[in-house]
Amino acid sequence: MNEETLFDPRGAADDLFNARRSLEPCEPVAGKYEIDMLEQAYTVQEELIKRFHYAGSKAVGWKLGLTDPKAQEQMALQTPLFGRLLEGWRYDNGAAIPTDQLISPRVEGELAFFFTAAITDPEIDESALLANIGKVMPALEICDSAFAGWPRSLFDAVADNLSSGFYVLGEPLDNIGDLDFASVTMQLYRNGERVVEGDASKCMGSPLKACLWLARELIERGTPIQAGDLVLSGSLGPMQAVGQGDEIRLDLGSFGDLHCQIGRASCRERV
After folding, report:
1. pTM assigned to the model
2. Mean pLDDT across the stretch 146-175?
3. 230-232 vs 59-65, strand pairing mode
């Protein structure tokens, strides 16, 4: 570690990885390791993903966060944020989600996009992007955090892979070329009670538009979306805390629905 700075991305990533593996929350890393720039937080995120990869869980896609323009304004940002999706964290519609592998789960409803080709054209538009998407599905992200009480700063959130956790995918939609992504609405139910409502206005006005931003951003960073990547396009409404035994149903209207149960013990090991 340089004596002139305490910024230590490997040390921060170690803290986060150990917290996720042990399910014992760690203290915020932004202050401890002097993470005071967004790019530093992304550097820590990259180091964290390397640790999951070495443990046997490779990256299989991307997730978007802070896609609500009003939330961006409140955080003095002009763009969304992103993290990675990891192998082995996916569940199918109707699954039982193990809380014995999560610290403090919260859920949010969104759309997922499966890409059939690499996106390498920095001038790509929405129609060309859609031509390279093979599947669109309703998705429930089950977010989690390495920190007690969740992240206290933007830098902590980004470093911790943008609070990524498990995710549940619904059935692929038909005729995706005819979908009006700006019209998607979202209702989230917990134990039969509607607890969250939202729509495309919370996701840059359209989940496809959010994906377009991500595609261009990743090209600029030299890490473009690849064939086979899955993208969670960002929440369509506020995040909702969940607990053991909760029955969750996500209704995206004409864009499909899904359900899952929170809180059964896992029969597989999370890396």
Report:
1. 0.94
2. 96
3. parallel
